[in-house]
Amino acid sequence: MRILLVEDDVAQLEPLQTALSQAGHIVDGVEDGAIAKWVICQRDYDLLILDWMLPEISGLDLCRQYRQAGKTAPVLMLTAKDTTLDKVTGLDAGADDYLVKPTDVFELLARVRALGRRSPLWQGETLQIADLQLHLSTLIVERGQATVELSAREFQLLEYLMRHPHQVLSRDQIEQALWEWGSEPESNATTTLVRRLRQRLQVVGAADWIETVYGIGYRINPEASKKLHP
Amino acid sequence: MFNRSRRNLAHWFTLSMGSILVIFAGTLYYQETLQQLGVIDSLLYKKARIIAGNIQYKLYQGKKRAILKNVPLLGNNPPSPDSEIIYARWYDAEGKLKRFFGVPPQEQLSKTAEFQTIKTTYNSGSSTSKVIWLRQLTLPVQHQGKLIGYLQMAMPMTRAQESLNRFLLLLILTVLMALAATSLMGWFLGGLAMLPIRDSYEQLQRFTANASHELRAPLAAILSNAQVGLLAPGDQDAAKHLRLEKIVAVAKSMNTLIGNLLFLARRVGCLAPESLKQIDLSDLLKELIESQTTQTVAQHLNFNCDLLPQEIVVKADPELLYQAVMNLVSNACKYTPADGLVELRLFIDCHRAVIQVEDSGIGIPAADLPHIFERFYQVDKQRQSSVGGFGLGLAIAQQIVLAHGGNLSVKSKLGQGSMFQIELPL
User: Fold this and answer.
1) Which three-class secondary structure state does DSSP give residue A30?
2) Which own/partner contact pairs does B105-111 have at CB distance under 8 Å and 24+ positions apart?
3) N or C: which end of chain A has fewer CB within 10 A?
């Protein structure tokens, strides 16, 4: 999932961003309400995690404005405000879930998974193309009897490819989808990542499934291996 | 909450000021009545003295008699039209009627020497008759120290009554207006009195909200950093893992402490009426027992409950009350060794719902008993640290019970166990 995490305290933002990234999500971390507002307009997210008390625009206002703009992605309020009235206010402003700080990271990850399941793009815990299965919660690829565990980055690439089967995805599209807001991936970053993923997929005999379309980009295609090894 | 207190203040202010006003007006009316009566009495007495002064007492046909010939009203002279006297009667010394003017009287005088108020029906000449109040004076008349007879006279109190009625109407109107003004003033003063309370309440709310944020933010950072450390892939260092787990445990325990402290700070005084609901204590305790069973099994404790089968309905905040009982039960479980017994009872005693939590645990020394509901009070540091906790659970339970208008008490014997009892008004 592509997640926008808005938290003004870097000491909290950084570990949460790391935890969410390690769980296979692409996370844009923002420290300021005004910047978050601008970012929301520029990109679509699958989930927003908002702190309440933020500089410039509060998380509550952000949530309201996001809903008023007609956007439907789930919003999780993550805040130290813990009275019943606060929770009611937060949920009434359009949040789908409310967590009081300090949050157990494992609980946060479970909530994020739960909110992800509500997304219209949700296709179940496992993505499948031909006989290749990608387990979203464990980052494990399974084909027949063989399994292989992916790193978060490799998982994100494979998930993106599998969500767009048989579709040629340009390097730009992949960079936009996989790299966080504002980060500058190196020119060969996508190539390197594809190479790493292919190596991993070798274990399950699906390395050739990722097809290079010269001059354009990549696509996942189970038929590609048959072309190479008829 | 503040509007309710303000209304209460205004009510009590109006009630007390109103009572004072009514008593004051009543006294005024009573004094006025006495004064009016005094005026009539002195007038009546003066007229009676004049009439009595005209009575002659001399020998007539060989016997001394009272001669009434020249006496006004009773004699031959016609009464003056403005005399106001309804009737005048002359009785001899034995009380026998000798002569009268006006309304026909009784033959025999029944009472002697006094002023009397009499209610009578008066024929005003035409066919209509009306009820009027009369003031009657019976005056003993003496001649050279010897009683020669009684003069009885009466005059109407109509004029005084009219004046009194007017005065009463004025008083009622004034009191009503004063009451209205008082209630408005009470509402205004109530608002003024509420201002500092509202300020301090809002200040407390702001303080707890800020404290909550400022204390929890670093804790959140500690907890998430430690947990991300635990999540890190490929890190198999057991000692490092253990330390991170310890940091997580300490951060969570700090969070519980902060939560408890904020709870105590926020809920000072009585509960807002909107948070109170009619709840069945039996249902509440059954729910608690279900959640408690796993813990008691894990600790190898015997858990007994004795609840009345009937509904016991009290007005309470269910979440808070649940927490209060839960704190007592957890406390009992903490200090009861394996194979011990924890009992939960619910019954009614003297129009109060009683919840008892009894354990067969280690008990509390008599010297510590008066202090165990104090915040952060720990009976034995060593003992406390072995079971965890900060010494706030009982303080919280007591605060919750007191906020519900109830009472929390404890009985304990060292080595034999303790019994905590919550009493709640039905």
Assistant:
1) strand
2) B105/B152, B109/B138, B109/B150, B109/B152, B111/B138
3) C
User: CA–CA separation, B349 vs B312, rounded Å?
Assistant: 12
Residue B180 tokens, joined: 């209205």
Q: Give the whole-angstrom CA distance, residue B37 versus residue A16.
A: 93
* Contact call for residues B73 and B100 (beta carbons, < 8 A): no
The pTM assigned to this predicted structure is: 0.59
SS3 B360: coil
Cα B163 from Cα B157, distance rounded (Å): 10
Tell me how far apart the alpha carbons of residues B390 and B261 are, in angstroms, rounded to a whole number.
10
- Cβ-Cβ contacts under 8 Å between A and B: the total is 69
> What are the mean pLDDT values of chain B's consecutive 10-residue runs (426 residues total)?
83 92 94 92 88 77 73 69 77 79 71 76 64 85 82 86 92 93 91 88 83 86 90 74 88 84 73 78 84 75 82 85 87 85 87 89 84 77 57 84 87 88 89
Say if A111 is an interface residue toward chain B (CB within 8 Å): no
**Per the structure block, which two tokens stand in for A46?**
């699958």
Q: Kind of pairing, strands B146-156 and B87-92?
A: antiparallel
Whether omega for the bond prior to residue B196 falls within 30 degrees of 0, making it cis, is no
Q: How many CB atoms lie within 10 A of CB B105?
A: 17
Which residues of B are less than 8 Å from A11 in CB distance? Answer: 217-218, 221, 225
**Type of residue numbered B407:** N
Tokens 């956007």 sit on residue: A71
The CA distance from B229 to A141, in Å, is 25
Q: Cα(B314)–Cα(B425) distance, rounded to whole angstroms?
A: 7
ipTM: 0.72
B220 close to A (CB below 8 A): yes
Question: Which contiguous run of DSSP H or E holds residue B401?
Answer: helix B393-403
In chain A, the residue whose alpha carbon lies closest to the alpha carbon of B258 is A102
